[in-house]
Amino acid sequence: xxxxxxxxxxxxxxxxxxxxxxxxxxxxxxxAGADAALDLLDRAVAAVAAAPVGGAAPVKDPRRFxxxxxxxxxxxxxxxxxHRAVSGLRRAHEGADVLVTHTDIPxxxxxxLFERLAGPGSHTALPGVYAAARCGSFYxxxxxxxxxxxxxxxxxxxxxxxxxxxxTGHIYGPSTSGPVRAALARRAREDxxxxxxxxxxxxxxxxxLVVVGGAAAEDGSSGAEGIMDMxxxxxxxMLRRGLLSEDTWAEMAIPTWNRTESxxxxxxxxxxxxxxxxxxxxxxxxxPDAAYERFLRNGDPEAYGQEVAASFLVAFGPSLFGxxxxxxxxxxxxxxxxxxxxxxxxxxxxxRIRLIRATRTDAPSPRPA
Length: 369
Prior knowledge:
Elements: H1 3-9, H2 28-36, H3 38-50, E1 64-70, H4 79-92, E2 97-104, H5 110-118, E3 129-135, E4 148-154, H6 178-202, E5 203-215, H7 225-240, H8 246-251, H9 261-265, E6 277-286, H10 290-298, H11 301-321, H12 326-342, H13 344-347, E7 352-360
Parallel strand pairs: 1-2, 1-4, 2-3, 4-5
Antiparallel strand pairs: 5-7, 6-7
Helix pairs in contact: 1-12, 3-4, 7-12, 10-11, 11-12
């Protein structure tokens, strides 16, 4: 049997939603999303710094803050916002101790995270600042009740906790239709409600939640339909050439859902969330495509194709190929880069994002879920 086909048939050995090796080098769009929320983060930090000690909450040491970085990946896009948050808290409370806990799902590259935390530019270089990591899905409880003062999650909540069933018609959830699309929307709603319910328990009264979430316009478009169609077409070509088995191809899926404004905001009015989390701010943005803008300046479609394919593979490759399909993933990357080179305009991507800031209300914590 062809080595590539053997690799492809063994591909499902990594959990979907894990980022690929070298994610930080190719996460420019994700970094732009986080950067867009820095003003929101500053306001959240100011609210936490100004919150009174005690009150309805258990009395806490006013010189200690606990932060959560939810969905940290390899930490490449976490260091700057966490450093900013820690610095803001320590300006308001000189000498305060700060603990930052970075979380992600099993299979995440925690070794790369730890290397970044120990390297230059890390918030752990500041005196009195400590870092930890916790393995688990943020669709479950991760912290004790009222443990967290500020929770941050950037470009992560569009990943679903699981697929409700096989994807048919496309590898990309938002590009499906009919009953498959409806099932994905239901799963996304349940996940988002669970995310908010758990944060409502974990945040201390007055605590802040900042989310940068993959979003969609009201017509459901995420801004990435072009590159997703190219990727699906390349996989179908590989299937026809015998580089993928029918069974492997049928299992390939990117389990994400980019929520519309109504899908994001209705949760704040429902039992279990409304009354516990108060929505303070919400905004919708379409991110620029920095890679495409570079292509327009330098006119190099080959470099653009390689850049787009590499970025696609580190974000979505583990979900499609798992960890045991190196040869087939490399062939896919080459083929996708060639498609982008031939039609650069079709690959232009403007990801939509939703920015959210919410406050934990000053009320008794619900019973742990």
